[in-house]
């Protein structure tokens, strides 16, 4: 595919990145607790992991920013597994945080033979291929697809998912690349970017598993477009932050087929005369909707950045990863 920027090329590689993960069987045993350490986009992937490990596999899971965990380490039990997630495998804070850990250490990384692998008992590679754009896209998808597979595997071994449910979940994952390709071929996000060209502040709402996607979408918009975007859980947004809204601040809401909770917040925002744009991910069950919602927000960040003339592959002030 001939595309002008690595970010767009890498967004379009995501269906294949998922396809390559589908036939893998990965297992980390059955811990009694999971701790996740990461930074930036990898940290947001960690939030998806937490949701899946808790809701599907029913394993208590904590996520902490690597830098925070250096002064406030997560509690460990003898059967805890700590997962350090870093696309580069070179982020200094994540490496240092993993080194502090006493429990079994698993690294999830895209960096073959990267430094993090030296401090892990077990490494799972995301196999997304090199990501050149500073803003992470396909590596995020490759991280979350691994979390889906790990959570389903633990839940199956743990008897929280029956054979039938396990097979059906894996089948739903198989449908994602095709659904993603449909979305990648649509023009609606380009049109949305045009309407938001002058927007300096933006709210993104999700609920359930898509709260993490709202936060990740806001990070992508900050990194690539310098928009002051904030991601919130829809219900929580009503408890204070809604005071921010005026005619200048639009809200994007991730709406899924099975999720009626977000509607209440949308109705409240509209009742105050403020603008809500719905990003719908209704063609797949809610559990799998993050894959589509995140692609929509990545595309929005990309198109908004290019409309604003930003060098999208090399945004100001940030590096691909921080080694100090
Ligand atoms: C930051 C980058 O410095 O590092 C983010 O600007 C990235 O985009 C973060 O998500 C974490 O990187 P890694 O390689 O540990 O996943």
Automatic annotation (TrEMBL):
Residues 22-160, 192-315 form the SIS domain. Its EC number is 2.6.1.16. CDD domains: SIS_GlmS_GlmD_1 (cd05008), SIS_GlmS_GlmD_2 (cd05009). GO terms for molecular function: carbohydrate derivative binding; glutamine-fructose-6-phosphate transaminase (isomerizing) activity. The keyword Iron does not apply. This is Glutamine--fructose-6-phosphate aminotransferase [isomerizing]. It catalyses: D-fructose 6-phosphate + L-glutamine = D-glucosamine 6-phosphate + L-glutamate.
